[in-house]
Write a structure and sequence with these properties.
Elements lengths: L1 E5 L3 E8 L10 E9 L1 H11 L4 E8 H13 L7 E3 L4 E7 L3 E4 L8 H10 L8 E5 L10 H11 L3 E5 L2 H7 L6 E2 L3 H8 L6 H14 L4 E4 L5 E4 L4 E4 L12 H16 L2 H16 L7 H7 L5 E3 L1
Helix pairs in contact: 1-8, 8-9, 9-10
């Protein structure tokens, strides 16, 4: 069983305009409202892959009700903690370029936080917990560690997709997968990365610190997977990028969902790259038929 955790979900309100004139009335060309949050994105793609999973996290208010109803409509099992404060709304404004305005996120009380921790009592050996995205400030910077410790107490594995100090602290607990992009990797170690060799060097540092698998996404140049056995490079399929939201989350879903079904990290890597690409080529997240179509186009080379 795979459990995703989204501590700070959102409604992503996507607005497209022909042109934007600040200080004037602008009329939208089209709009779209979607459940947002990195863990929720992972869940929605896991559903496409027929992986057994459930979505956990905090939701509240009319915005939280929208997310819960949307996921139920897609057949996604959820077990959220309902909080007193409203789930945030993030605005994605598309014109010549994309501008994002992200909400602050709700205040989560200690009682509500404990309620989520108690839900992790259902974890068992062999389960995987996916921790993705930002932490509401009210929870404190160490909340991921509290979740990881509860996960390890149950004998389950975990994946963490965050950045900076939170990721570095999590490495001690040996995550199944971490997935920084090349910019995040450079920022984490305070260096300038100028080549693929640099990526491999610093990716291996994450492995040395405890990660079991490291995937580094490099946009159009593909992705690297670093394990204790070898380093692999995957090409990305050709296509027109239409969507910058959720591709990394889709990659995690493709990797974890396939790994639980095949136990083969290379096939999981291939499916992860295909899933990320399928989302990048879509208006929303990847659909199963698009993922299946792209999987044969992903070529993996051992370096």
């Amino acid at each position: 069983m795979i459990y995703t955790v989204t501590l700070n979900p959102s409604i992503d309100y996507i607005v497209e305009v022909e042109q934007l004139e600040l200080g004037s009335l602008n009329r939208m060309k089209r709009d779209l409202k979607l459940p947002g949050g990195k863990g929720i994105n992972v869940s929605r793609v896991l559903e496409q892959l027929n992986a057994e999973h459930a979505a956990l996290g905090f939701i509240g208010g009319f915005t939280g009700n929208f997310i819960d109803a949307y996921l139920n409509k897609e057949g996604i099992r959820s077990d959220f903690v309902f909080i007193q404060d409203d789930t945030r709304i993030n605005v994605k404004l598309k014109h010549d370029q994309e501008t994002e305005i992200n909400g602050l996120g709700p205040v989560v009380t200690e009682e509500e936080a404990v309620a989520l921790l108690q839900k992790l009592n259902q974890l068992a050996e062999g389960d995987i917990l996916v921790l993705s995205g930002s932490i509401p400030p009210s929870l404190g910077g160490d909340f991921y560690l509290r979740l990881i410790q509860a996960c390890q107490k149950a004998g389950a594995e975990f994946v963490i997709d965050t950045t900076g100090e939170a990721l570095l602290e999590a490495l001690y607990y040996k995550p199944l997968l971490v997935k920084p992009n090349h910019h995040e990797l450079a920022e984490m170690f305070g260096v300038t990365i100028e080549s693929q060799d640099d990526l491999i060097t610093y990716g291996r540092k994450l492995l040395d610190e405890g990660a079991q698998h490291v995937i580094i996404s490099m946009a159009g140049e593909g992705a690297l997977m670093i394990t204790s056995e070898a380093v692999y490079h995957a090409t990305v399929p050709a296509g027109t990028v239409r969507n910058s939201v959720g591709a990394g989350d889709s990659m995690i879903a493709g990797f974890v969902g396939t790994l639980t079904q095949t136990k083969d990290p290379l096939e999981a890597f291939r499916a992860g790259v295909a899933s990320g690409s399928a989302t990048a080529f879509s208006d929303d997240l990847a659909q199963r038929k698009e993922i299946d179509k792209l999987i044969p186009e992903v070529q993996i080379t051992k370096l």
